[in-house]
Amino acid sequence: MRPLPLHRPAPLTTLLALALAAGCARSPQPATGPVPATAPVAVVALTPALPEDVHSFAEPDEARVTHVDLALFVDFERRSLTGAATLDLVRHPDADELVLDTRGLDIRNVTTPLGDALEWELGSEVEHLGRPLRIRLPDGLDRLEVHYRTGEDAAAVQWLEPAQTAGGDAPFLFTQGQAILTRTWIPTQDSPGIRQTYTATVTVPNDLVAVMSAEALTPGGERTELGRVFAFRMDEPIPPYLIALAVGDLEFRPVGPRTGVWAEPSVVAAAAYEFADMEAMLDAAESLYGPYRWGRYDVLVLPPSFPFGGMENPRLTFATPTILAGDRSLVSLIAHELAHSWSGNLVTNATWSDFWLNEGFTSYIENRIMEEVYGAEYAAMLEALGREGLASEIDALGGPWSPETILHLDLAGRDPDEGMTAIAYDKGAAFLRTIENVVGRERFDAFLRGYFDAFAFQPMTTETFLGYLDEHLLAGRPEWREAIRPEVWAYQPGLPSNLPPVTSRAFADAREEADAFANDAAAEDLGVEGWSTHEWLHFLRSLPRELPAERLTALDRAFGLSESGNSEILFEWLRLAIANRYEPAFPALEDFLTRQGRRKFLLPLYRDLAATSWGREMALRIYREARPTYHSISSGSIDEVLGWPPTP
Ligand code: BES
Ligand code: ZN
């Protein structure tokens, strides 16, 4: 039997019916459906049953948040979000307490909707997790208000000075909830298994625009004495890490009937050009995996300090401007975030130990979308780049026997961020590719469509996925099971030997050119005509790590690498420059480290520098200047690599 959809928007009658279904004896109003004559003896648990989440204080089997209504005032001067979160909940009949996650929140009071004070207390601080907010529940109460403000350095929120934006004259704000940062700006149950619908009214300064991962109910906002008020509604139940807000001088431009871009006015045209294929990607994804269930799909291009490449906030992906290469060559990132509309946002990792269910599935689907839209050759290059990244990640994690290379991770007591490696992405995707190879594409596609349908709007564990795979794809075919070995993929380290190889003709050619250059061919004689970004990346990665300065100069002269407007190419080039202490590229390096804040670029460059005898000091000098402009997600990681603050 399918579990009851407890997390759907919950009018009173539904809640009542659910409470009855759950064995609740309280029945203050006539309910629809059968009412048991006597209260059942056995107490049934709230559904769906959730596995324990070691990264949340919530006790969802006792009392569970089903809806969050936010009323927030965005105070740029004090750098604080101030207001209230009104929470709807369902309760076990015996529950007398609701436990929420908070971190750094300043809680003013907790009340009933009528304003009566409720008893509450904040537990002690736990590293990474923050503090539990325990609220005593009077009989029958199923809605309450938490009045609060965010703390000065709420990790989810980045407040930007006008100078940190493209336009330069308005401030900017954005939030980033994944993995466990939503609790730094919203007091709720911050666990990916606890799905919640949400509504919000957000008040911002009059010349600014607010956008959220939700339907905009007042597109231009409404001007009031306090500022401009924007209202939002997300009717699909989502994990709280997907609640997202951005405020700035923003403009919208449509790309297709269901797709468009939001960006600062000076960026919006470039963004619309770059992402012109979004609608085609959306159509391709639907044809593969079934209807898109979120209405619109828009992309918000953020200022350059955004710490990630992209974040799959529903209806509104947040993206770094570093993918605006001018030639649409980095748009696989959009395919990736779009793919999360199925894997991640529709069927969600139940805990952060199951993160590969989000990212591995998504990386696989990303590649399938790219294949539909740009062809098999193109997709093969992308997959090959992923495999290269996977090989170096396995090295970095300590080799193929390292437990860190297992898909299903034990993250108890750790920051879930530590599990967010290429293993989840590229080993996860390789697992699905292995299944596809064994059972055939058609059968696997039908299986995935059925999977997304069966578990839509529900959390998923590794164990449940493997069970469903067995039952719905492998049952009665022991030879398939033997060929795939799902448990080895999910629970053993390293790369299983049945991993299907990726071959790309274009990459073989690019590698030959790299070998030729290593053997002293002149840069001008290399056959780079018509190379895509991906061939350049493969070429740069294939060069020997050590090259004499004059060879690097020859490369840079011939191909203008230090001036490249393509962030991925520039990044690979700068790594090569650091490996060789190639000083002519250092101004470009310093510029790159100070004008964007994407962790994927910053961390390896700082790490490479810090690993040399000469580079550490340079890294610290640049970091001292740039650190205040980075998001805490990026600076937190770099602090560790550089041992910041340095001891005098
Ligand atoms: N959901 C992730 C970003 C994320 C992961 C945020 C873990 C916080 C914790 C997003 O979908 C993602 O994977 N982004 C990648 C780009 C992608 C093309 C691999 C990124 O930001 O680099
Ligand atoms: Zn992702």
Describe this structure in words.
With 648 residues, this protein is an alpha+beta fold. Helix 7 (422-439) crosses helix 8, helix 12 (505-518) packs across helix 13 (533-542) and helix 17 runs antiparallel to helix 18. Strands 1, 2, 4, 7, 10, 12, 13 and 14 form an 8-stranded mixed β-sheet that branches. Strands 16-17-18-20-19 form a 5-stranded mixed β-sheet. Strands 8-9-15-11 form a 4-stranded antiparallel β-sheet, with no helix packed on it. Strand 1 (63-75) and strand 2 form a beta hairpin. The protein is globular, with a radius of gyration of 26 Å. The chain has 19 helices and 22 strands. It has 4 domains: 12-246, Sandwich (Immunoglobulin-like), CATH 2.60.40.1730; 250-325, Zincin-like (2-Layer Sandwich), CATH 3.30.2010.30; 342-503, Neutral Protease, domain 2 (Orthogonal Bundle), CATH 1.10.390; 539-642, Peptidase M1, leukotriene A4 hydrolase/aminopeptidase C-terminal domain (Serine Threonine Protein Phosphatase 5, Tetratricopeptide repeat). The N and C termini lie far apart (64 Å). The chain binds ligand BES and zinc ion (ZN). Ligand BES is lined by residues 178-179, 308-312, 333, 336-337, 340, 359, 420, 425, 600.
Q: Which key features would you list for this structure?
A:
Zincin-like, binds zinc ion, disordered N terminus, Immunoglobulin-like, alpha+beta, single chain, binds ligand BES, 648 residues, 5-stranded mixed beta sheet, 19 helices, 4 domains, Neutral Protease, domain 2, globular, 8-stranded mixed beta sheet
